[in-house]
Amino acid sequence: MKFIEEVVVEEFLPTFRSMLAEDLRERGLTQSEVASVLGISQSAVSKYAHGEVARKDVFLEDERVRELVTEVGTGLSTGDMSRVQALIEAEVLIRRLEARGDVLASLHEEAMPELAAYEGEFRIHDPESELRTTERVLSSVRRGLRTLENTSGFAGLIPNVGSNLVECTPDAVTIDDVAGVPGRIFDVKGRATVPGDPEFGVSEHVANVLLTAREHGSEARAALNVRYDPLLSALLSEGGYTVIEFEGEGDLEESIAGALDSEPEATVLAQTGGFGIEPVIYVLGRDAPSVADAIEPLLR
């Protein structure tokens, strides 16, 4: 794991400081004065002056970097710009270079190929970035899956079609905004088996149940399907969940919509089955771990 700050320190700062030291020297400042202005040692300035510090061409040739060096060099040499302002201007440029597709971001992706695999736009320091949101959702699903894997007897609750634990992003619209288990969770010799790490867009059935529930007023962001049993419905109801049952012979999404129209606060949707349709319970919740936690009391 490599932080983008490391890329800044190792790749950007030596070049930027070298360029700025060179600019200030050309404006008549002594090595001692340059050292004082930049807050570095005089020996460091000497190394810059004698080309003993490696400089990266991608920054040397970047017009924005060159313009900032000129602006800061002018301001510091004349006294029109304080060191604080110079620092702020440099930090602003660094944040711009960290944007997806820009210089620092590209260098960071070279060091962290996992970032390069992400297709969306993001800034690594943006607390509201889509990347941060999706990674948190994936982490949440992983925690929920660990709970299910460690819950004794959960395999016995997996329906014939398999289970899936899913969670969506706050503004989810399609199944591509919902993370789940690729291939679903199956009972393999009495053990719940998760075939792979959670991904977005791999669950169609349970993801559509969650999206349909949200479209009709539910605030849930996660869902899990288990086999239907009247006893399980009763236990969930006793545990504080709002359970609503409906037959499953019609279109599932229409059935869910009708159920939620009659009981908007429902947190358990129990499809009692129909001809050729396996009965299933869908547990809804605020996130994947809380949905997984709902299962353990059913197995006591």
Automatic annotation (TrEMBL):
This is Bifunctional thiamine biosynthesis protein ThiDN. It comes from Halalkalicoccus paucihalophilus. Residues 20-48 form the HTH cro/C1-type domain. One of its GO terms (molecular function) is DNA binding. SMART domains: HTH_XRE. Gene3D superfamilies: Class II aldolase/adducin N-terminal domain, lambda repressor-like DNA-binding domains. PANTHER family: HTH CRO_C1-TYPE DOMAIN-CONTAINING PROTEIN (PTHR40730:SF5), TRANSCRIPTIONAL REGULATOR PROTEIN-LIKE PROTEIN (PTHR40730).
